[in-house]
Design brief:
Largest sheet: none
Shape: globular
Number of helices: 22
Structural class: mainly alpha
Number of strands: 0
């Protein structure tokens, strides 16, 4: 079960990943190999900030100047500097920042994009493309209501903007409004043609009990998109992997995850989705080399911490400690939109089901993707409060969601409580 349904093609950032905070160096200094007693004795949830022990301790690595993405962003920046009133130049630079932010899981670049586009979004009558770019940034931050408002305005100004319809369809899928997403996908087809519209609909079907139909549509898109840019092909490959997971076809899912990563080997969201697949298959040892060069992404680092714990590694406690510090840093910056990730952390690494349940229930108010359903069910069962997942049970019944992990959890709900849940009592 993955978040690949959130991955869009042209400059749209998925809404399922937390931005990056502090980073763990590839090799921690010896002083950091064991937890300080004061930290080790803190009750969950962890609240203390991380302070470097030495002046030469690395906190984060920046991309090298020779990185092709960095070179592209610098080139686009130079073009905008020579023509600061050129909206097209600004949007190209902003989208380059957004794409890179998504690729490496670092929200700083989304902030750079927002600064680039700000002169146009502050106008009394902002242009549609500027509003769409800002909506993409807000979606990345999980500020869904504000993103929707900008998307509505964008589509009022430009009703044939296929990217806006596709972004709105994705947001509807994230929040579980599948009827609205179906209408959005129809508009994608009307404005951009059969290929992209079919991919949108194929994605949607995987959430509504029609995974086999989803797989058939997406495979058609795979063939039709054979000459498309690698980012588009990787998107389709990821969607096929997700549909295969819905059907429990693990070999097919893995084949397409690997195909997607051959096209975009450093894409954070693909890497995290495949890492979750490996963790679910009981293969945590493969997660460590997969994400070894991506520790600066918080979403990737959480999977590294989960893998270390699953392997009973002597490093597991410090990974959990660093992950806790990252979540605290996010809160200090006002970024508290990543309840799904924090709920998993609280349950699986802090062993605190009550906190996990509170986080998962709050997250469910904003996000209703399959992973959100799974996290809430896991927390409710661990906390011995199955009725706390009542809305998930109803949601799965109404949407006919096919998902082996979710269905397995539903079968663990005690029958009397499950009946009461189904009756809404």
């Amino acid at each position: 079960m993955t978040a690949m349904g959130l991955l869009l093609w042209t400059g749209v950032t998925p809404a399922g990943g937390a931005p990056s905070g502090g980073a763990l160096p590839p090799s921690l200094p010896p002083a950091a190999t064991s937890l300080p007693p004061a930290i080790a004795s803190l009750p969950a949830p962890y609240r203390a900030p991380f302070l470097p022990a030495r002046e030469d301790e690395r906190l984060q690595e920046v991309p090298p100047a020779a990185d092709p993405n960095v070179l592209e962003m610098r080139s686009l920046r130079a073009k905008l500097d020579t023509a600061p009133r050129d909206l097209d130049a600004a949007i190209r630079l902003a989208n380059s920042y957004i794409d890179y932010s998504r690729q490496i899981g670092d929200a700083h670049y989304a902030g750079y994009a927002e600064a680039v586009i700000a002169p146009w979004t502050r106008l009394a009558a902002p242009p549609a493309n500027a509003l769409l770019t800002q909506a993409t940034i807000l979606q990345y931050r999980h500020q869904f209501d504000s993103a929707r408002e900008l998307l509505r305005t964008t589509l009022h100004l430009d009703p044939r903007n296929a990217q806006a319809w596709l972004t709105q369809a994705t947001l509807d899928m994230v929040q579980g409004d599948y009827e609205a997403a179906r209408k959005d996908c129809a508009q994608v087809m009307n404005t951009s043609g059969l290929e992209l519209g079919s991919a949108c609909l194929g994605n949607l079907l995987s959430y509504t009990g029609q995974a086999r139909q989803s797989l058939a549509l997406l495979r058609q898109s795979e063939v039709a998109g054979g000459r498309a840019p690698p980012a588009y092909q990787a998107w389709i490959e990821g969607l096929i992997a997700e549909a295969a997971e819905r059907l429990g076809d693990w070999p097919l899912a893995e084949t397409h995850y690997r195909s997607a990563l051959q096209l975009l080997p450093h894409d954070n969201f693909l890497l995290v989705a495949y890492a979750d697949f490996l963790l679910d298959r009981g293969r945590p040892g493969e997660v460590l080399p997969l994400l070894a060069d991506h520790f600066q992404s918080d979403t990737a680092f959480l999977r590294l911490a989960l893998a270390q714990a699953a392997l009973h590694s002597p490093d597991a406690s410090r990974y959990a400690w660093m992950m806790a510090a990252r979540f605290e840093a996010l809160k200090q910056r006002g970024s508290d939109f990543f309840g799904r990730e924090e709920a998993r952390f609280a349950l699986q690494l802090q062993h605190d089901p009550e906190t996990s349940l509170a986080l998962a229930r709050r997250n469910w108010q904003f996000q209703r993707a399959p992973w959100d359903a799974r996290v809430l069910l896991e927390a409710a069962l661990a906390a011995h409060q199955p009725r706390a997942a009542a809305t998930v049970v109803t949601f799965v019944e109404e949407t006919r969601l096919e998902d082996p992990a979710v269905q397995s959890l539903l079968r663990q709900v005690p029958m009397p409580s499950r009946n009461a849940i189904g009756e809404g009592r």
